[in-house]
Structure formats: C-alpha cells, structure tokens
Amino acid sequence: MALYEKYPVHLSNSLGGKKEVFKPVNPGHIGMYVCGPTVYNDVHLGNVRTFLTFDIVSRYFRHLGYKVRYVRNITDVGHLENDADEGEDKIAKKARVEQLEPMEVVKHYTEGFHEVMRQFNILPPSIEPSATGHLVEQIEITKNLIDKGLAYEVNGSVYFDVMKYHTSHNYGILSGRVIEDLIESGRKLDSQDEKRNKIDFALWKKASPYHIMRWPSPWSIGFPGWHIECTVMSTKYLGETFDIHGGGMDLKFPHHECEIAQAVGANGKQPVNYWLHSNMLTVNGQKMSKSLGNSFLPRQLFAGDHALLEKGFGPMTVRFFMLQSHYSSTLDFSNEALNAAEKGFRKLSNALGTVKKLEHTGGSDNAELRDDLLKMVDACYSNMSDDFNTAKTLAALFEMSARINDFKSGNLSLKNISEETFHAFRNAYIQIMEDVLGLREEEEHNHELLSGVINVLIDLRKKARVDKNYALSDKIRDDLKQLGVQLKDGKDGEINFTIE
RNA sequence: GUUAGUGUACCCAAGAGGUUUAAGGGAUCUCUCUGCAAAAGAGAUAUUCAUCGGUUCGAAUCCGAUCACUGACUCCA
Question: Where, by residue number, does ATP bind (predicted)?
Fold first, then answer.
C-alpha cells in the first residue's frame, strides 16, 4: 500500500473554501502550478514563504509516493506597474533605469532568486518556464478568446470581456467578488477608455514607443498581459484541468480570478481542482511592506543588516520558524520570535545528529514503549496529511527528540525495542526532518582549521580535568565561551562544542 | 466602501462541536545528572480562548452583533 493510501491528504481549497480529501486527476500523479516571481527585483521574505509552502507540498506528496510534476514560472515580461493595465512594464522600466538590456535584468534577478531558493533548501520545480518563452501560445489563446467572442481588439490591444464572460460563467467564483460592486466602485482613468468595461483586463498590449520589450502579433507590436502567461504555461505542461494551483494570497484577485476566466473561456472547463493560497508576513504586528520600511531581504536577515533586526538568523532557522505556523495564517516576524525559533531549531538539529548516530543494540519490544514511539511516527504523517500542518508535525518531532535524547543518555534503553521499531522510529524522524520539512543543519562557519584548534584546546581541557585542575579547565571553557564557542562535557569524558 | 481572513498564556503558535481537565517552541522557576557549567531528562507556569449575546446535553471551535488588526480591490491625497 502506498503511503498516500494510508494517509490520504486533506487540503483547504480556496475554491469553495472547504477542506477536502485530495483526489488527483490521474491516480498516483499530481500536476501542480505555482505563480513564480517577477524577476525585476530581489525576492523578499514574503515570496520565500510562498515558495517554501509549496516546496513542502511537493516534498510531502513525493514522500507519500506520488509522482509530482511541479511547474513554477518565471515572469520575465508582462507584469504591468499597476493593474489598470497602464504604465510601463516593470522589467522594461528597470532596464531603462539601470541602462541594461531587459534580459540582462531578467538573468541577474533570476540567478539571485535561485540562490535564495538554494539557501533556504527550497527544491527546484520540475519545469520552470518563462513568459517570454511562450509568446506563441499566448497569442494563440488570445486568438481563441477573440474567436469565441470573449475578447476584443481596440487600437492594437486586446482585452478580455468580463461582462460577456459573466453572462454564462461566474466571474468571482474564486475571490467572492461581486461583479456589480467591482464595476461601481472603480475609478475611471482616461487611458482606460479603450476598454468596454473598467473591469476588463489586457490579454495583449500595444507597445508605446518607449517600451523596450516588444514582439509582433496579429494586432500590434506589443507584449502580453500579465494574467495570460500562467494560463498558457499551466495548460501546456499540466493539461486543461490539473490538480493544484498555488500562490500567495495577494494573487487571489485579480490574478487567479482572471486565470480562471481565461481558461474557462478558452477551454470550457475549470482549469484547477484545488486552489491553495499561502498567507502574508507581518513584522511586529504590522504588514511587511516597502513603504513602511519594515520589509527585509533574505541577505539582510542572514546578516542582521536591518534596523529592525538585533542580529542575523540563518536560513534554516527562518525555515523552521515559518514551518512553526500554518501556511494559511499570517505570520509575525519579530526578534523575540526568531530568537525562540533559533533555540528550538537547534534542539531539533541536535536530536537529528544524535539519532543518526544511534545504533540498535538488539532487543525486543516493550509494548508500551513501542506504542509510544509508533504513535509519534503516526502523528507526523497524520498531521502532514491534514492540510500540511507542519506546526503539529514539528510538535511531534519535539516529543520524538525527547525520546532520542533519552536513548542517548540511557534514560531509555534500546534493548526495550525491536530492530523493526527502532528503524521505523529512526527513519521517520530523519525523513520527516530532512526530506519532508527540508530541515538540515545550519551551514556553520565550520572551518577545518578552527575545528582543529578547538580540538587541541579540548584535549588540554580533558587533561586538566583528569588532573583536577579545574581552574585551568574552567578558564579554557570560559574563554572559549567568550568567543562564542560552547563546550559540552559528556558523561563519558568526551567533549563536544558548538559555535554560536 | 466591497471582499477575504485574523484576534488563544509573558512572546511565537497549534486547535475546524465531546479523544484537549487548550499541542509544541521560547521565557521563567524547581528537581535529576554533573567537580562546576553547558547539554539532556522530569515537573510547574491560561479554570481559559477579543467582547457581548445565541444555538447545543456539550463551543476556543457553529450563528449574530460589537471592537481591533491584516490582505486584495477601491476611494482620498
């Protein structure tokens, strides 16, 4: 029996707002699409949380035995400065500002994005398509929508006719927006006169003379609208109806609503069975935003290089910190919370190192102990299958850590469990930590030279202790502590150290 | 204004009607181990879940109202 049959996944579907049992279109296979970054600037922590969320989703599904095709795009064109479909393309603007070719900007920030993903141990998707690589498809679907009467051309630009679509479908099915309210409340810009209705959105925009990124189309030299790329790339690689579509909460409207309208308009069916949205980040209770000056970049967080940060925090600490909350809740960043996470993560990380070194010594099951251990293993899976509840899974791992330390110290004896139980317990801990949650030891500044020097001092301290020269042994320990090196004396006389 | 969501201990946070006499992490305190530390283990710290009503045999969990906060879309500047 595959793991996914033993632990069927339940997930909260934004489309309908209910928690449902997950059933893939094709048994054993999963198609998942996630809106990737617009590569005109550095990724910020909000982006990281979204990609982390779906990293967990794909890791867990794979761990359960599903074959996952995970598509996450790179938006390298078409994301307009504002959703009035006016203004300059973000990438083109940046290119002019920095006197670079647009594709130079794209490459620079794409590589930066990949580096950040690597630091957070977020695995790459199966396919990472770019919008500019799919212009032909975007033009084709635009033609299709015009043919169906759901889009119209004005002055070389093409717009999606929302009211027309709404006569036979439901615009607002995902976001809960009421179309009448949208029409009433909007403001009218002069330049929006091209549209039949202000809520219409662009499928193709004619390029103004200053626009650097431009391609030929049946309607004009121009560039595609923002929403169409995701529809095209998800359909191309995952089919007209696929399993999961993810993204940040802020994309729910209008972006994902528009995607649904385009796909339903073009193909006549709902494109996605399960919509998943990850929630936003706040800082000290306030939303994280550039204008408030409280947003920070990953590298600022690592270095502690920001007015709101007392010190730096490693990427694994941050990853752990984010996993301690549910992806659908807002999460608050603060020094206090980060400090707590750092200590908590160190505890798990230490237990991971310990459990790897544990070896079964031969014995048979004590029923009570066995049930206790296996119950925790089961909890990990049940919790993960319950809408990817990483917080509860971590709680289970902390309890397992206590047992692991008991085995190490001798409070519990490995002779009281069978080899089978031991391996089930040990493997679950390691796999849930490393494969599913993607947590690994923080990349310490572990230079061989430094370790060697510390070990020399440790040897001296050992000798001092044997000689009961505690004044000297304490001096070695205290002086090292001053420098950020913590020595830990084991019962057996062995000494370990950690660098802070 | 429209719409979606949130409000749980000193801090972060889980919780989707009875298995919770409210997980887990941090903090604080006590004890065990230890030459002393550190680490680790054991225990303690919310009669209570923003407020007020209601439904129910039973609610943090459902409904209504109020207050506060957040996102999106607007509005104003």
Answer: 290
